[in-house]
User: What shape does this take?
Amino acid sequence: MVTHSVTLDKSSKLFDIFGEDKIMVNSFHHQAVKKVGDGLAISAKAPDGVIEAIEKNRLSFPRCCTVASGDVTHNSGNDE
Assistant: This one.
């Protein structure tokens, strides 16, 4: 599977979930966010600057995340 790294914003909900600032995701998606709308914040970016995840403003509740990772069945190689 083709993968690439994504850097998570340390103040994002995704960082809270994964507990690290860099994760690997698959590279099979073909769409990306170009401009982030009002009330949304960038949660993750690829090394080339492509926005990989956005979330509702960090101060608002409830929080909402959108991730552009394509196939969500990514296997890290561990079959457990």
Summary: Helices lie at 13-18.
